[in-house]
Design a protein that fits this description.
The strands form four sheets. This protein has a ten-stranded mixed β-sheet, covered by helices on one side. It is of the alpha+beta class. It is built from 22 helices and 23 strands. The chain is about 35% helix and about 20% strand.
C-alpha cells in the first residue's frame, strides 16, 4: 500500500510521525462491524504473538455501569518506535508475514496479515497503544517508549510518537475509548469469558504457562471443556488428497451454553484464524467445531469472505461430519439423562414398547428433558413436579411447554430458543399438536353422534346455546379453511334484508342469538343462520350455514327457500359482479326422500342441489357431515392407533363442551342412582 509520511516538528518532547494510509477509510472501517469478542481475541493474539505470558483485558465502567473503556495490557516484548512505524505505517503489512513462530521460536504465531489492530474499531472510536521495548544503544539496551494513536473519524491517519517509557519492563497497553451510548453487549454477557476461551482454547492448552484474564476472570479451557476434544474424519474431495496432515474437524464440547457458536477456521495446530458460517443451533449440546488445515495459514479477511467459493467441498464435508457427530452425541446424552431419571424412579413412562402418538410424545419428552437437564431442580419433590409438568404439556397442550420451561425451570431465553429450533427441525411438537387436534376432532364427531343418535338427548338439545356454539368451534367440518375465520359483521344488514322474505320468521342470525337465549318458550327453538368470510389478494369466499332444528325434516319447501335466498343474496347490488364465491349449507338431522333427485344428481357431489358460477347450495345431514369428517381423519386415526370409546367421547364432551351439552350428559351418573354395577373402563389402544 502507498504511504505518505512526514516528520512533524514537536514544540516540546520527542518527534511525532504521522502516516496516511492510501487504502481508504471504507476498507478500514469495515472492521467496525466485526464481532466484539473476535475484536478482543485479536488484541489478545497480538499480545501472545509478542511472547506475552500475562494478558489482561479490563472492562472499565462508568458509575452507570456502562463500559467506557476497554484496556488490554500484556508483558510481551513490546514495540520500539522503529518497529511501531513499520507495523502501523501500512495496511496489511506485519513483521509476522514471513515467520511461523514468535521471536526466539518460543511459540506458534497467530497473525500474518497486519489486520488484527484494526479489529479494535469494533469496540470504540479512539485507539491508543502505549508500549515499551528494549532497544540496543551505545550504552547497552535501553527501555524506550512509543505511543500510537488512531481515530475512527480519520481512519487512514495514524500517529506514532516517541515517549519516555512509563514502564520498568517491556510490554504494551491498548486503550480503546468507547463512545457514549455504544453498547458492548457481547462483552457484558455471562458467557463472554467462555466465548473468548473457546477461541483461545488450543493455544492455552498448548502453552499452560500463559495466563489470560478477561474482566478479572482467568481463562482456563479445563473449566468449561467436557472430556477430550474429538477429531472427526472428513469425507474429503479428491482435491484435498495431498494435504499433509489432512484437514480435520476437532469437536470440542463445553459444559455451558455459549452465544458464539460459529465454526472456527484454524491452522493445523488449532490456532483460530477466523470464523465461518452461521451459529450452530443445538438444544442439547454446547460445542465449537474447529476446522483445522495448514492450507488456511495466512488467510486475510477477504479470503475468509470468499471461503465458500474457494473451499466449498471442504466446508461441506466439515458440515456433514459435525451433523453426524451431533446426532450420535445427542443420542448418548439423552440416553444418559433417561437412565438417570429411571434410576431415580421419576421417568414418567413404563418400559413397554410405545406406538402411535405415545411413541412420538415419549420421544419428544426425551428431547425436552435432555435439553433442560441442567435446569431440573436437585430436590426430589421439585424434580418430580418439573418432570410431570413437561409430560403433561406434551400430552395435552404442547403450547404450554415453553411457559413451563421459562416460569418453572427458569430456562434462559437462549436455551429455550435453541430447544424451539431443535423441536421445530424435528417436527415432533408439530406432530403432537396435530395428533391432539385429530384426537379432539374424532372425539367431537363421536360425541355429536352420541347426542343425535339418542332420541331423548336429541329432543333436549337446544340450538341457540348448545348446538350452535359447538358447531361454531368446529367449522372445520365444512372445510379446513373455515376453522379460523370469523363472522363478517358487515354482512348482517344484507342478510337481514332478505331473511324474512325467503326463509321465514323462525330464522335468526347468529349475531342476534343473545336476544333469544332467555328462558322462555321460544328459547333455543329457532333455526340459526351462520356466516363467515375469507379474503385474500385475489378473491373472496363466503359461507352461509342454516342449522335446522333436529326435529325438522327438510323437504321441498325448505330446499326452495334456501335456493331463493341464495339467489336473492347473489343478485343484491352489493355483491353482483364482484367475483365473490358463496356456499350455502342447509344442515339437518334428516331430510325427505322427495328431495333426493335434487341432491343426488349425476356428475355432482352428493348434497349439491344448485351450482352456478358464483354460488353453490348444499343440503347435508349431520350423518353425512360427520361421515365425511371422519373419512378425512381416518388415516391419522390409524396412525395414532386411536379408538373412540364411549367413555372417551363422554369425557371429551364434559371437558370441552360442558356448557353446551344436555344436562343428562353434563355430570357423571350419581352412584346412588346406579341399579347395576359399573362396567370396567375400556383399555386404551
Amino acid at each position: 500500500m502507498g504511504v505518505v509520511s512526514a516528520e512533524l516538528p514537536a514544540q516540546s518532547g520527542p518527534p511525532l510521525t504521522e502516516f496516511e494510509l492510501s487504502v481508504g477509510e471504507r476498507k478500514i472501517l469495515q472492521f467496525k462491524r466485526k464481532p466484539q469478542i473476535t475484536a478482543v481475541a485479536e488484541l489478545v493474539w497480538n499480545a501472545l504473538d509478542a511472547n506475552a505470558t500475562e494478558v489482561h483485558v479490563e472492562l472499565r465502567r462508568s458509575s452507570m455501569t456502562a463500559i467506557t473503556e476497554v484496556v488490554v495490557t500484556d508483558n510481551g516484548h513490546g514495540m520500539t518506535p522503529e518497529r511501531a512505524r513499520t507495523a502501523f505505517q501500512a495496511y496489511g503489512t506485519t513483521w509476522k508475514t514471513t515467520r511461523t513462530h514468535t521471536e526466539g521460536g518460543e511459540r506458534i504465531l497467530h497473525g500474518r496479515n497486519g489486520e488484527g489492530r484494526l479489529f479494535a474499531f469494533a469496540l470504540g472510536d479512539q485507539l491508543t497503544w502505549e508500549s515499551a521495548a528494549w532497544e540496543p544503544q551505545d550504552v547497552g539496551d535501553v527501555l524506550v517508549g512509543v505511543r500510537i494513536r488512531g481515530n475512527a473519524d480519520h481512519a487512514t491517519i495514524w500517529q506514532v510518537e516517541e515517549t519516555e517509557s512509563a514502564r520498568e519492563k517491556p510490554g504494551t497497553t491498548v486503550r480503546i475509548s468507547v463512545p457514549q451510548g455504544k453498547p458492548l453487549s457481547s462483552l457484558e454477557r455471562d458467557d463472554a469469558a467462555a466465548n473468548l476461551t473457546a477461541k483461545l482454547a488450543f493455544y492455552l492448552r498448548a502453552y499452560p504457562h500463559v495466563h489470560v484474564t478477561f474482566d478479572g476472570k482467568r481463562l482456563d479451557p479445563s473449566d468449561i471443556i467436557v472430556g477430550e476434544p474429538i477429531d472427526l474424519e472428513l469425507d474429503l474431495p479428491e482435491e484435498y488428497a495431498g494435504e499433509d496432515p489432512p484437514p480435520v474437524v476437532t469437536f470440542v464440547e463445553w459444559n455451558k451454553r455459549m452465544s458464539d457458536r460459529r465454526m472456527l477456521i484454524c491452522n493445523a495446530d488449532g490456532i483460530a484464524l477466523g470464523e465461518h458460517g452461521s451459529d450452530w443451533s443445538d438444544g442439547i449440546i454446547s460445542f465449537t467445531p474447529y476446522l483445522r488445515a495448514n492450507l488456511f495459514n495466512g488467510l486475510s479477511v477477504d479470503d475468509l469472505h470468499g471461503l465458500t467459493m474457494s473451499h466449498s467441498g471442504l466446508l461441506d464435508a466439515a458440515l456433514k461430519a459435525v451433523q453426524k457427530h451431533l446426532a450420535v452425541r445427542g443420542a448418548q446424552i439423552s440416553a444418559e439423562v433417561v437412565r438417570q431419571l429411571k434410576t431415580e424412579g421419576i421417568y414418567p413412562y413404563d418400559d413397554q414398547p410405545a406406538a402411535g402418538t405415545l411413541a412420538i410424545e415419549r420421544q419428544t419428552f426425551d428431547v425436552v428433558v435432555t435439553a433442560a437437564r441442567h435446569a431440573l431442580p436437585n430436590k426430589r419433590a421439585a424434580r418430580i413436579l418439573s418432570v410431570n409438568l413437561i409430560r403433561t404439556a406434551l400430552e395435552s397442550n404442547p403450547g404450554d411447554l415453553h411457559t413451563i420451561l421459562e416460569k418453572v425451570l427458569a430456562l434462559s431465553d437462549d436455551d429455550r430458543r435453541h430447544l424451539k429450533n431443535l423441536l421445530d427441525s424435528t417436527d415432533l411438537t408439530h406432530v403432537i399438536g396435530a395428533a391432539t387436534t385429530v384426537t379432539n376432532r374424532l372425539n367431537f364427531i363421536q360425541a355429536l353422534r352420541k347426542i343425535l343418535a339418542d332420541e331423548h338427548l336429541r329432543k333436549n338439545l337446544r340450538e341457540v346455546d348448545q348446538l350452535h356454539p359447538m358447531v361454531n368451534k368446529n367449522l372445520w367440518l365444512f372445510g379446513e379453511d373455515w376453522h379460523m375465520t370469523r363472522s363478517e359483521v358487515g354482512l348482517t344488514n344484507v342478510l337481514q334484508a332478505h331473511l324474512e322474505d325467503h326463509l321465514g320468521e323462525d330464522i335468526i342470525l347468529e349475531h342476534e342469538l343473545e336476544a333469544v337465549t332467555q328462558p322462555d318458550e321460544r328459547s333455543g327453538r329457532v333455526d340459526i343462520l351462520m356466516f363467515r368470510s375469507r379474503r385474500d389478494d385475489n378473491s373472496t369466499e363466503r359461507l352461509v350455514i342454516e342449522l335446522k332444528r333436529p326435529t325438522v325434516k327438510v323437504g321441498p319447501k325448505e330446499l326452495t327457500q334456501i335456493k331463493n335466498y341464495a339467489r336473492a343474496i347473489i343478485d343484491d347490488p352489493q355483491y353482483s359482479g364482484v367475483g365473490c364465491k358463496w356456499r350455502f349449507y342447509l344442515v339437518t338431522y334428516d331430510y325427505s326422500d322427495k328431495i333426493l333427485r335434487d341432491i343426488r344428481q349425476k356428475d355432482r357431489p352428493a348434497g349439491l342441489a344448485d351450482v352456478q358460477d358464483d354460488y353453490e347450495v348444499w343440503v347435508k345431514s349431520w350423518g353425512e357431515i360427520l361421515d365425511a369428517g371422519e373419512r378425512k381423519l381416518r388415516f391419522f386415526q390409524e396412525q395414532l392407533n386411536y379408538e373412540a370409546t364411549d367413555d372417551r367421547v363422554t369425557q371429551h364432551l364434559r371437558e370441552s363442551y360442558s356448557h353446551f351439552i344436555p344436562d343428562a350428559l353434563a355430570q357423571p351418573q350419581d352412584e346412588s342412582e346406579e341399579t347395576e354395577p359399573t362396567a370396567a373402563p375400556e383399555q386404551e389402544q
